[in-house]
C-alpha cells in the first residue's frame, strides 16, 4: 500500500512538472519587510519617538506569474497584499490584496492589457522618474511632494480598471487606463481616466501624464474606484470636489553614478453642486533631486515647492517648501539599512477640514497652513508652520 501511494505521488509530481514545462508557466512568491524608528518634532503640537514600518517601501508579499499561450501571447497576473510589520495586521481593512490584484494578456508586438486593481499610468511613468523612483534613497514617507498632493508616490491604486501598455517604439511607450465607477444611471460618476507617455534615449528619460478622478458622492476619498486616495492637512479642505485633475511631467539624466532629476505638476480640485467650497483650487508643484551611488552606498537629496492658488476667499494662499535627504547602505543584494530626514515649512492660509469619521467631510474653514512632511505624516500634521522628521530602518526583500 505504501509503495502504491508513493508511486501515485511520483506520477502526480511528474505530471505537474511535465504540464508546467509544456505550458512554460511560472509563479513567483515575493515580499518585502521594512521596519524602523522615527522622531517627529511636531505631531499636533507634541514631539514623538515611535516605531514605524514601511518607511522606505511599504511592507508586502505577493504572487506574480505568467503562462505562455503560444503565438507570442502570454497570460500574466499579480496578487499583492500589504501588511504592518510591527503588528502583523493586514494592510487595509476589507481587502485581501490591497496593493495590487490584476490579470491580463501580453504580446511583445501589440502590448499588454490588464484588468483589476492597479497603479495608474501616471505612477508607472511620471512618478517612477521623480525623486521617489528607482535608484534614489528618497522615500515617499519623507520625500513625496507635500501630502502626496500629486500622487507621484503610491497615492492612487485604482479599482475596476482596465489598462493598456504599448510595446517600446524606438524608446517611446504609452500607457492608458479607464476605471468604471459602477454607479447606475451615471456611467462617468466615480470613474478614473489616466494616460502617460514615457521616452527613453540613452541616459535620458522623460515622461508626461494626466489623471482625472471623478467623485461619486460628497467625499472623493470614498469613491469606489479610489482604494487609497491620499488625504492630508494640505488637500483636506477640498475632498468634496466634483473631480480632481492632475497634469505633470518628470525627467532624469543618468551620469554614471550620479542621477539628476526634475518634476512638475498641476493639480486642480474642481467644485460641483455638492462641494463644500465654491472656487476651483489649484496646487502647482516643482521639484528637483540628485542621487549618488557607490557599490554599497546611495545618497540623495530633494527639494519640493508647492503653491496653492488664491481662491475661496483666500488672498494669502498656502505655500509649502520641503527639503528631504536619504542615505542607504546595502549589506547584501536583499538587505539594507537606511536613514531619511526631512523638513517642511508652510506659510499662508488654506481651507482646512478636521478629520471626519463619516462619509461627509467636515465643513472646511480658512486656517493657517500647517506642515505635513511627505505622505508619512498625512494623519499626524504639525499644528504650526514647521515639521522635522528623522527615521532609520532596515529592509529585507525575498
TrEMBL record:
Q: Which residues form the Porin domain?
A: 16-344
MF terms (GO), sorted A to Z: porin activity
* Coiled-coil portions: none
Which interval of the chain is the signal sequence? 1-23
Which compartments does it reside in? Cell outer membrane
Presence of the UniProt keyword Metal-binding in the record: no
- Gene3D superfamilies per UniProt: Porin (2.40.160.10)
Pfam families from the xrefs? Porin_4
How does the record classify its membrane topology?
A: Multi-pass membrane protein
Keywords on this record? Cell outer membrane, Ion transport, Membrane, Porin, Signal, Transmembrane, Transmembrane beta strand, Transport
The record's Gene Ontology biological-process terms are: monoatomic ion transport
Known InterPro entries for this protein?
A: Gram-neg_bact_OMP (IPR050298), Gram_neg_porin_domain (IPR033900), Porin_dom_sf (IPR023614)
Q: What's in the GO CC field?
A: cell outer membrane; pore complex
Q: Which PANTHER family match?
A: MAJOR OUTER MEMBRANE PROTEIN P.IA, PROTEIN YDDL-RELATED
Quaternary structure (record)? Homotrimer.
Q: What is the protein name stated in its UniProt record?
A: Porin
Q: Which organism is it from?
A: Paraburkholderia pallida
